[in-house]
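task queued by scheduler; priority normal; single chain, no ligands, no partner chains; default sampling; output format set to structure tokens
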Amino acid sequence: MDAYLPETGGIHPREAAQHHSQVASKVIAKALEEAGIKPRDITVIAFSQGPGLGPCLRTGATAARALASYLNIPLVGVNHCVAHIEIGKLVTKAEDPITLYVSGGNTIVAAYEAGRYRVFGETLDIAVGNCLDVFARTAGLRQEKGLVFGAIIEKLAEKGEKLIPLPYSVKGMDLSFSGLLTAAIQLLREGKHRLEDICYSLQETAFSMLTEVTERALAHTEKPEVLLTGGVAANKRLQEMLRIIAEEHNVRFCVVPKEYALDNGAMIAWTGVLAYKCGLTVPIEKSIVKRKWRLEEVDVPWVEET
């Protein structure tokens, strides 16, 4: 597969969308080849309808509409956040978890109740993945194919020896990472501490906040499992923290494998299958993308049926 990596700075929506449009046909052809099927073997087309960056969503939606129209088959719009939860449940065999979904765009603690996934806590400003990415770029780190900023910070943090106090912002069931990021960058610019120690302190503080809120949601809901999903789920230290609280509450800890932790087509396809089996399709003329489509706005009738 072909992922977009900006040469400098963060993701530029227009450049990312141009990249998507340039590689779309190649990625689709490769997916068909690896699956060993022909376009006419496809029953339904699923696409990420939101939330996310508008230009990128529109590029994916355009490709999906074209395929559905050409093949004369149904179209299913999938919520990106729901897809992260569903692929996590599929590959870990979790049935009814409290979920911590952490990525560059989202930080959400959620669980299923009465037909939808309900948000028990979330970030009030930036996502934890974005916090780590911005810090890494400010520190002059460079990501490579297969080694994202979060993984680079994790490696540096493993060599950290000193825990430096940083802002710990848990507000009820919600979290704030902007003050933590500002303070970490300030430490960086002061030049008084090793980069490894700052990375270690940043990780420990951010992940402790996430663990606290997840544990409180777990105690409240009494769910039998904790599921960690999203791109930041690949971090071993965060996994360790959540595993500890799961053991203390005598529940099963589930973590999505690395290949399904980052954004991937499989999670959209699988959630599309679940929705299609429940009759949830969308006419092409109504398949407009939803940049701010919240998790709790999505009906998930398949959860009760499985």
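post-processing summary
- The mean pLDDT is 94.
- The chain is about 50% helix and 15% strand.
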